Amino acid sequence: MNYHHKQMGWITIAIILPAIVILLAVAVFSPQYPQLLMTALIIFLPLSLFYCLTISVNNRELQFSFGIGLIRKTILIKNIESAVLVRNHWYHGWGIHYIGGRWLYNISGFDAVEMRLKNGKIIRLGTDEPEALLRAIRANAGMR
Prior knowledge:
CATH class: Mainly Beta
Mean pLDDT: 94
CATH superfamily: Pleckstrin-homology domain (PH domain)/Phosphotyrosine-binding domain (PTB)
Low-confidence stretches: none
Number of strands: 9
Number of domains: 1
Largest sheet: 5 strands, mixed
Shape: elongated
CATH topology: PH-domain like
Strand order of the largest sheet: 5-8-9-7-6
Oligomer: single chain
């Protein structure tokens, strides 16, 4: 069972993009044009890295990447021991971080699929399609 989904980080986009537009608009009329332009470019970097989370699952691997794809990870399906639906607390936040003994990769929302790998690592993937992602992982890994 193949699965592919791109979740947009609309809140991230809604916060960062207007700031960039305002900086560029002010820069046009400002003597500090180079500094404002550089600031806009620096702010654009996190937007390009975290505007979306793309997850793909096939019979060999689960791949996920943020934004333009510089941040990506691949997990072999054969290395997934179990997968369950979970709900993150609001204070877990969004992005990539290690919290509570597990890695969390999340772009928005609170729903996630938690995978326990055969090497003992635990990874949570945030998604706005938790049931569909869980079905794809379980189907490809031969789980119930």
